[in-house]
Write the structure tokens for this entry.
Amino acid sequence: MMDLKEKLRLFNQDNKALLATNFYNFETLKGVLTAAQMQDSAIILQLTQKSIDYMGLHNALALAKAGLKTYGVTGWVHLDHGGSLELVEACLKAGFDSVMYDGSELPLAQNIENTQKVVRMAASYGANVEAELGYIAKLDQSHDKIAYTRPADAQLFVEQTGVDALAVAIGTAHGFYTETPKLDFERLSAIKAKTRIPLVLHGGSGVPVPAIQRAISLGICKVNVATEIKNTFMKTLKSLLTETDEIDLRKVFPPATAAVNELIQGKLKMVNERFQPVS
């Protein structure tokens, strides 16, 4: 199977993108993978520090790898928002295909220095390395602060780190939006022109389909979706539990898993369809 670095390089040349989805247990993983199977689409499976703490590093990785094989899906396992060099190293040693070091809240020089260490660390594993530059609000952070990625900083960062992919701040945020996000496409185009590497869109949940597709046409090669997966699963489960006294989780979980499947099928269609400008 092609490694993720090479896959992203190919997509970068052809203005295509991979969907990257987080999973939190077997049920959400199954929903994602059955959707990818039905769409005959490759996918990136992501794990955060919290998910790793919840499931266990080796358990979560084994679950993802076994799932990809069981459902016959081409995919890769990625560390999402790795906040320490120690976590990145542990994931590389365990067999992750890709790691993200998130030093976006550090001063630029320190982010560069730490990312350089991660790139060197990942080289012997052949793993893809993603980093982040700019402010993309996380679930527990204010969406009021704006610190978009500056094209000149992105150029410097890529040149000095040798990173494979870069997550950029162009108007998205993690979690729920209180209003429809407006992406800075002009900034995205400028960053692409300065860096030439695969760019990543975090906070993809809730962004309108045309905006996502336009971003892909301008250089986004990886689109992250997480919040909508948790929300879809839990809302479906909560609704079902108010209607039944059933205690067999093998009966109450499948509808929530099916809802995730439907969600991800839509997301896969979104990233796999070409952007059509409004005439």
User: Anything to note?
Assistant: The chain has a mean pLDDT of 92. Strands lie at 18-22, 43-47, 75-82, 98-101, 128-133, 165-168, 199-201, 220-225. The longest helix spans residues 249-272.
